Amino acid sequence: MDTTITPLGGDVYEIDTRMAGYSGITAGYLILSDRPCLVEPGTAGSAPVVRRALEDLGVGEKDLATVVVTHIHLDHAGGVGDIAEMYPDAEVVVHEKGARHLASPERLMRSARMVYGDRLDTLFGELKPTGADRIRAVDDTGVIDLGGGRRLESYHSPGHAKHHVGLLDSRTGDLYVGDAAGVYVPETKDVRPATPPPDFDLDSALDSLRRFRELGPQRLLFAHYGPVTEVEETLERSAEELRVWVDAVRDARDEGLDLDHAVAMVRDRTRERYVVLQEGTDPELTEKYELLSSAASNVAGIMHALDRHA
After folding, report:
1. CA–CA distance, 308 with 4 (Å, rounded to integer)
2. Keywords for this entry (predicted)?
């Protein structure tokens, strides 16, 4: 079996989707049930990696029943169009606020290119359109049939993005949290916030975390990165980090700092909270998690939210 695949029990397999060539930065998950389901296909550049993993797990092009994304950011959904081409019988499930962007991704790609410039091609690649007849949109809740009485239940969980859903496996109690609980660093057990513009909203994000707790999951499966069994502690830490960052950015904003100076202040104030940023940590580990959840992106998202509410 390829090293990109890690069995997690309950017929669930973690797939390292190797975003931008990094290992351990983005995870997709295959639920190898009667109706196989892929959660989070990753970037367009990850599609060949995912296909090889599914082949190794015995899932052929006619076997995959469903592809589900927690939200349409390119590190999660950039490969949907490619995977839809590779698996022509698979239904694509997404929240209704993101569905049109999978069918017609031009606007999403323009916005992404404005943010990332030439780095877009290296980091994510191009999101290809998926036929509208292949897409099923869900609203506040939805159900994905996994066969044999097993199902994934989707729950709208905005805050990180307005088109975000969490996914609860009825058989295992696994909750696929996407980015709604932030970024988990398995090497150091850090939980870092993910608050990018333009959708971040603190109240919605905290409400989503409360909803996750009420679902009573047995395990959290992070897209960044991997399984976590300390459910209550991790969700509490996620909420705490959001509050700390918003308070820090609010202070910077009240001092009239521009974005660069606000980032410097917030980075200095929060650095000690994360082992991954401490001296002596593997520089590549620090680099890849700064790529995923950079201080600049987090501060910009919070600034945007504070300006909006003001």
Report:
1. 41
2. Hydrolase
At 113, give phi and psi (nearest 5°). Answer: -70, -30
pLDDT in tens, the chain (310 residues): 556 999 999 999 999 999 988 899 999 999 999 999 999 999 999 999 999 999 999 999 999 999 999 999 999 999 999 999 999 999 999 999 999 999 999 999 998 888 888 888 888 899 999 999 999 999 999 999 999 999 999 999 999 999 999 999 999 999 999 999 999 999 889 999 999 999 999 999 999 999 999 999 999 999 999 999 999 999 999 999 999 999 999 999 999 999 999 999 999 999 899 887 777 778 888 888 888 888 999 999 999 999 988 7
CATH class of 5-239: alpha beta
For 127, the 3-state DSSP assignment is: coil
pTM of the predicted protein model: 0.95
- Pinpoint the alpha helices (H) of the chain: 47-56, 74-77, 80-86, 96-103, 106-116, 119-123, 202-215, 231-254, 259-270, 283-292, 295-309
Enumerate residues 6+ apart whose C-beta is below 8 A from 82. Answer: 41, 44, 47, 128
- Helix and strand element counts for the chain (H, E): 11, 15
